[in-house]
């Protein structure tokens, strides 16, 4: 571990030199890439610097302990050694965590798709509840939400809603939300007061840059149509809505919520790139289906991940066995406890795998 840390520190120092180089400063792309690389190393570099300082203090205290000391001084040195040992252990655990392979998508914006699944109108209403939950969570994180596409049900829910969350680290926190979300409650359409079970699916995909997934003009078919609202009523009579089909994969995306045809096409292409990238990722993961699956899941939207029980004000994440009795808070965007628990579980799995290698 120390060899890896020293190599990291050497690279950090080299980056500091490069960032002061006039040739680098005059090249915006290289300057941006090197600055990001150094920023990514900053936390581990700071932890290693402190670890070296604490280790030096520990060795000094050990040497002092070997000297002839009076009882009071010996007790002080003993207490100092205990504190330094505890701090060294904390730093070693933190550094181990920081050295784990990082998901290259963690800092990216995300595209989120929510669809009403089993349960008809109630599933669509729950889809809109999930959308509001994520909106409020994004607001608590200082992220910006941009609606990309929405198809409303007759009762005001969403048959489907697609939106982008813009903010540093959005994917690192939202990536565990992909899957089937189950709700248990008395629907507004239920006159007998019976509890129904419905589901909505969530797919979270990192935003994909054009250079990451190239879409050739010859490979797509672009159709335009009039934007429409709930119940198929026309919103406008101009063909500003855009549907894009990627012919080689059969993947389609559309957008009608932008102000112009060009804006809608750009948004549809964003969604299309994310869906193509997600399809390729799932195909890659399927190759290793025989290996032990991660406890927090594969991101497959058909996998049931969480139940929201309204009568008992209970939220249960089935992947890690976490149950919270504060449903109202969670639905109002207080999701940090769930997301932190999922993140810690994923990190523990990575550490276990790293130790076995």
Give a written overview of the molecule.
There is one protein chain. The chain is of the alpha+beta class and 357 residues long. 46% of the residues lie in helices and 20% in strands. It has nine helices and eleven strands. It has helices at 2-19, 22-25, 28-65, 71-98, 121-140, 170-174, 261-286, 327-331, 336-356, and strands at residues 110-116, 144-152, 158-166, 179-185, 196-206, 220-225, 241-246, 251-255, 304-309, 314-317, 322-324. The strands form two sheets. An eight-stranded mixed β-sheet has the order 2-3-1-5-4-9-10-11, sandwiched between helices. Strands 6-7-8 form a three-stranded antiparallel β-sheet. A hairpin with a 4-residue loop joins strand 7 and strand 8 (251-255). Helix 1 crosses helix 3 (28-65) and helix 3 runs antiparallel to helix 4. The radius of gyration is 26 Å and the shape is globular. The model is unreliable at 230-236 (pLDDT under 50).
Topology:
Elements: H1 2-19, H2 22-25, H3 28-65, H4 71-98, E1 110-116, H5 121-140, E2 144-152, E3 158-166, H6 170-174, E4 179-185, E5 196-206, E6 220-225, E7 241-246, E8 251-255, H7 261-286, E9 304-309, E10 314-317, E11 322-324, H8 327-331, H9 336-356
Parallel strand pairs: 4-9
Antiparallel strand pairs: 1-3, 1-5, 2-3, 4-5, 6-7, 7-8, 9-10, 10-11
């Amino acid at each position: 571990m120390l060899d890896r840390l020293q190599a990291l520190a050497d690279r950090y120092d080299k980056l500091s030199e490069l960032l002061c180089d006039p040739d680098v400063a005059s090249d915006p792309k290289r300057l941006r890439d090197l600055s990001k690389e150094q920023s990514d190393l900053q936390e581990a570099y700071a932890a290693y610097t402190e670890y070296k300082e604490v280790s030096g203090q520990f060795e000094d205290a050990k040497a002092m302990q070997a000297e002839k000391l009076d009882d009071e001084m010996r007790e002080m040195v003993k207490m100092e050694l205990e504190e330094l040992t505890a701090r060294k252990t904390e730093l070693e655990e933190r550094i181990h965590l920081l050295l784990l392979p990082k998901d290259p998508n963690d800092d990216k914006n995300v595209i989120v798709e929510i669809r009403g699944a089993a349960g008809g109108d109630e599933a669509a209403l729950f889809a809109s509840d999930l959308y509001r939950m994520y909106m409020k969570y994004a607001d608590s994180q200082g992220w910006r939400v941009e609606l990309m596409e929405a198809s409303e049900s007759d009762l005001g829910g969403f048959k489907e809603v697609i939106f982008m969350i813009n903010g540093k680290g959005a994917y690192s926190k939202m990536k565990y939300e992909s899957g089937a979300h189950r709700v248990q409650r008395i629907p507004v359409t239920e006159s007998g007061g019976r509890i129904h079970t419905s589901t909505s699916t969530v797919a979270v995909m990192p935003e994909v840059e054009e250079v990451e997934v190239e879409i050739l003009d010859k490979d797509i078919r672009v159709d335009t149509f009039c934007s429409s609202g709930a119940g198929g009523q026309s919103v406008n009579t101009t063909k500003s809505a855009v549907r894009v089909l990627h012919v080689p994969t059969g993947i389609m995306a559309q957008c009608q919520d932008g102000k112009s045809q060009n804006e809608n096409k750009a948004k549809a292409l964003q969604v299309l790139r994310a869906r193509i990238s997600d399809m390729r990722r799932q195909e890659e993961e399927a190759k290793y289906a025989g290996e032990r699956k991660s406890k927090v899941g594969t991101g497959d939207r058909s996998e049931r991940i969480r139940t929201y029980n309204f009568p008992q004000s209970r939220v249960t994440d089935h992947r890690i066995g976490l149950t919270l009795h504060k449903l109202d808070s969670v639905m109002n965007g207080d999701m940090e406890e769930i997301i932190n628990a999922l993140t810690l579980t994923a990190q523990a799995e990575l550490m276990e795998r790293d130790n076995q290698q």
